[in-house]
């Protein structure tokens, strides 16, 4: 039968286990000292009497259920006929000691956003980054400029460390109210739900000149340190971060070399940290609620019309022989009416003349007023173009003539958003020597339901219209596109993404997700 010591030696070959075991070494030393004394024949009661402690305290120390103070340790040592020796021994990478936890790593990660804000590696840090790159360069790169991205872990901070860092300045721990402690615990559980925190560690490097190489170190998507960057940065020492990174990288590369990285790394990564893509149809199969929620934004009748008007082989409508400002405003008004976008206020960006208002039967808003109360407004002087002069419109559109007045170049953004990626645009497009048609753009997931309605309305009003990104819209409706599955701590505003659901549904989604950074192999020798 295998002895415990043989079992322990085998388990200590696992670097993750060794780190956790080493972290408990002081506690084990106390327990072992008590056990040794007790094995010599001294009872807990006798040891309690010699130390002046209670038998209950001795039992708790022996079972590892208490953390004695330095004063108590001295009394224990004297009672056992020993002298307490306290040493500060520097940890080393070789010994598996970790001088930085997840909270320290996050300070590097969260302060830096993009290389323009990264630190320049100090004289102690730069050689460690180069060493890290050498370790990872043993594997095949995963992108341009010798990019390597691997999975690494760090221990979460203790709650007390978290509290002192985030709350202690305003309300010291010993003086904290129960309400503050409870709030801190909730926040701690949110940021550090598991004992280990997983990170993606990336390094890229290339020769800038024959004599000079550029290096960049990333933690997740944040560039933390650079070497020989052309931009000036604050010089900083990140020795603690790099020692952790090197230790983790050496262990990871060893797993890749031994062919054990799947079971020892990838299969251990909680999905809340992972990033990948899933086919929308697969997501719907795994989580029917996602499909139900998706179609809440769409109208079935509008989709049916859209397919009939734009997906079929129906002949194109005749082009408009000319374009004027009036025709453009009236086309915009068709869209606004179809979407029910109303903003009837006297404080228009543009105030119409009474003659124009009478032309539209005394309407509260003319098409031109609708445009200027709803569109982006940076029209490059479109409002100055005579309403029914096609030559004046064409000259203005080519950025010439007396009416053109640059003020931002957003005249076609008829429904603005916080980013043009989510706006709706209507472009008057001219086919050479043929005529005009309207090009409607708004294929983002946020805007597509409205784009379908707008396209249908323009078609039914007799306007020749083409929809930009129509394949993307149709693939989304039919579930043929892909959605990003992102870590719980991330959110990508310019990419439709989800966090992995919890429980059985989450596992079903995970099984159908194509996860990033799953394939690693060593360079051939």
Lay out the secondary structure.
Layout: H1 4-11, H2 15-23, H3 25-39, H4 44-51, H5 55-62, H6 70-79, H7 102-111, E1 119-121, H8 125-136, E2 148-155, H9 159-166, H10 178-191, E3 196-209, E4 212-219, E5 222-227, E6 235-236, H11 239-258, H12 261-264, E7 276-279, H13 280-286, H14 288-294, H15 300-311, H16 325-339, H17 354-359, H18 367-374, H19 390-397, E8 413-415, E9 424-431, E10 435-441, H20 448-460, E11 465-468, H21 470-478, E12 482-486, E13 497-499, H22 503-511, E14 514-515
Parallel strand pairs: 1-5, 1-6, 10-11, 12-13
Antiparallel strand pairs: 2-3, 3-4, 4-5, 7-12, 7-14, 8-9, 9-10
Helix pairs in contact: 4-5, 4-6, 8-11, 9-10, 13-14, 15-20, 16-18, 16-20
Can you walk through the features of this model?
It is a single chain. 42% of the residues lie in helices and 15% in strands. The strands form three sheets. It has a six-stranded mixed beta sheet. It has a four-stranded mixed beta sheet with strand order 13-12-7-14. It has a four-stranded mixed beta sheet with strand order 8-9-10-11, with helices on one face. The protein has 525 residues and is α/β, with parallel strands linked by helices. The protein has helices at 4-11, 15-23, 25-39, 44-51, 55-62, 70-79, 102-111, 125-136, 159-166, 178-191, 239-258, 261-264, 280-286, 288-294, 300-311, 325-339, 354-359, 367-374, 390-397, 448-460, 470-478, 503-511; strands spanning 119-121, 148-155, 196-209, 212-219, 222-227, 235-236, 276-279, 413-415, 424-431, 435-441, 465-468, 482-486, 497-499, 514-515. A hairpin with an 8-residue loop joins strand 8 and strand 9. It contains 22 helices and 14 strands. Helix 15 crosses helix 20 (448-460). It starts with a helix and ends in a 10-residue tail after the last strand.
